[in-house]
Amino acid sequence: MKEPTRSKQVSDCSRPPVRWRRELRGVLIRQTQIAHRVRKLANEIERDFAGRDLVVVSLLNGTVLFLADLIRNLSLPMRLDFIGVSSYREGTESRELILTKELRLEVRGRDVLVVDDILDTGRTLKCVLDKLRELKPRRIKVCVLLEKKNCRVEKVRADYVGFSIPDLFVVGYGLDFAERYRNLPFVGVLRPEYYHIG
Ligand code: 5GP
Ligand code: MG
Hints:
Layout: E1 8-9, E2 24-29, H1 31-49, E3 54-60, H2 64-72, E4 78-86, E5 98-101, E6 111-119, H3 123-133, E7 139-147, E8 160-164, E9 170-171, E10 187-190
Parallel strand pairs: 1-8, 3-4, 3-6, 6-7, 7-8
Antiparallel strand pairs: 2-10, 4-5, 9-10
The structure holds guanosine-5'-monophosphate and magnesium ion.
Residues 62, 87-88, 94, 116-124, 169-171, 175-177 line the site of guanosine-5'-monophosphate (5GP).
């Protein structure tokens, strides 16, 4: 099997659009970079899951934009379901995990692709993967848009990674702070003084 392309390392910020300059320190990943990388990931996934009974399991709510772009680039039969998990609520620190939606589709004997927004400590994915394994899928692969390499607490790895980013709190392209900024078409870095505003 061909080795997957390595995740892109990004660390430099560019200037945010004027509208967001007050709240954001910078744009870490631009819309065009995301689009290009998502197409690459979709190609890898297509190749690895060809001929399989694929169920995509996406973690709400941070994956909405990424998921939509990823699956629209997948030319292969698949089913889609969601698990609702919430760990951040109002802050930027990882807290206790709350399940807000259970999986409905049968995954026994099927190939599962878990899609998440960002792999940080790994606690969220560890919990979700433990739960999914009990349902006896044929195999589970993990796809994340972003990963923070140095923040892992649990031993979890993703098979498909969009971008490796430094340990910064990022928002946009689905990722929120207190449920805001999900609609930004790029990934940006929030100014620390905005972490404390509701
Ligand atoms: P973990 O359980 O791996 O520590 O964290 C995973 C979850 O925490 C992600 O799915 C995401 O919801 C949230 N998270 C971690 N880092 C960030 C970040 O930099 N920005 C935002 N908006 N959410 C994050
Ligand atoms: Mg999440």
